[in-house]
Design goal:
It is a single chain. The chain is α+β, with helices and mostly antiparallel strands. It has a single domain, classed as PPM-type phosphatase domain (Phosphatase 2c, domain 1, 4-Layer Sandwich). Helix 1 crosses helix 2. About 0% of the residues have low confidence.
Amino acid sequence: MFWRHILMRKGACCPMQIEVAVNKTSKYAVGESGDSAEVVERPKGGVTALMVDGQGSGRSAKIISNLVVSKAMSLVADGTRDGAVARATHDYLFALRDGKVSATLTMLSADLNSRTIVISRNSHCPVLVKQGDRVHVLADKVNPIGFHQFVKPVIHEISMEEETILLTFTDGILHAGRKYGRQLEMETLTKMLLEATAADVRQLAGQVFSLAVEREENRPGDDMTLLALGVNGNNNERTGRLHLTYPV
């Protein structure tokens, strides 16, 4: 899935563009992925990209991830702030399933109202952030939603600068290649980010995803989802686009 959203610079006629790309596949020989990913427009401008990994795999995990992502999307669309979205979504899942199932939830928000990018994590998988010539790995320890009665997300807020790129994923990619003794390393991902531009977010997502699948001998041992977001300031196009391919 690829989403392009236009953001106007204050005091300028040329727009920035938010580029969002999602690549996902299911565990090998399992027909349905337990991961869900969606993009929703924010009521005061901008977009939020959400990624959820439901506990387990297959149909049961998909039901969980769909519940979580749908709840979170509705809250974002209502104007709820990201930290409150994560807390309320946890409370919803905890009450619905009596604390017996969990899910990871990551949200990347390009907020036009605050001119910032907000990163909300309830996942052990990191978010890699490229700004300038540096890549920061956000990997603070945090609990998934659903299990514990009181859970809050880890929130980071950064300025919305041109050529910012964010990359995150579920544990199928985090642990890709581990059972074969060639796990995908953060150093490799960092190098790929440093070589990419925000206009190439779709290509970057495809390259990282293909590398992870390759490390799994083309037979993923877990559901895999990758989410990338970039702020592109070098294009005068004013048209937003959404492109989706879905395997049947």
